[in-house]
Amino acid sequence: MFNYWKSICIPILTVAMLGFEPVFAATSAGEYRSIGLSYRANGRYDDAIAAFKKSVQLEPKNASGRVLLGWTQHLAGQEKAAAESLLPVIYNDPQYVPALNALGIVYLVNGDVTAAVATHTWAAMVKPNNEIAYYNLSLSLHQLKLYSLAVAAATKAVKLEPSNPHPLVAKAIAYWNLGDFTSAKLTYRQALNLDPSYNNVVFLEHLQKAAFSRQQIAIVKLVLLAKN
Prior knowledge:
- The chain is mostly helical.
- The protein has a domain at 14-93: Serine Threonine Protein Phosphatase 5, Tetratricopeptide repeat, CATH 1.25.40.10.
- It has 12 helices and no strands.
- It is elongated.
- It starts with a helix and ends with a helix.
């Protein structure tokens, strides 16, 4: 009998000490979502996706659960799967902002810039104080070479979230491509006031995680060099 309990308890205790949640302990969609969030926080995207998929199976109409799945697939670089997870949410509720924000970013990162513009524009119309939509709309419009519109979108994002340097950097590169180098440098200095890390060219690589393209990051580096 002792050996039987040992064979059960030791694996469970080991899992607990490592900080992981045994999947078989989950019995509800909410528990699977909690487990998925724990996995995701530790960078275990495949395990998180598996847990979120289970939560969606148990509660297929739970919009938040589908967004968690889609966003985690995006973080794992699975853009096509992410879009497939998010689209049903929007079909069911075209005004569900978390899904719109997430899908717009998925489109942008995947290079479907026109779809990104359409999605983020709609998200901003549904929720006018949606900083995420305006910020990503600025990056999307910049890729389409609509620089004046990109400045306008970034300006709105800055107004909505003045403590976030990302919209300021997006605004700076839009000014740069407009040929307004003075405004570009002044705007970039505002970002530096919020976060001095933007004075480090190596640090700028992290902007790829903030939906900047490689070409846009290259422009940020030009602004930084000019600013100095």
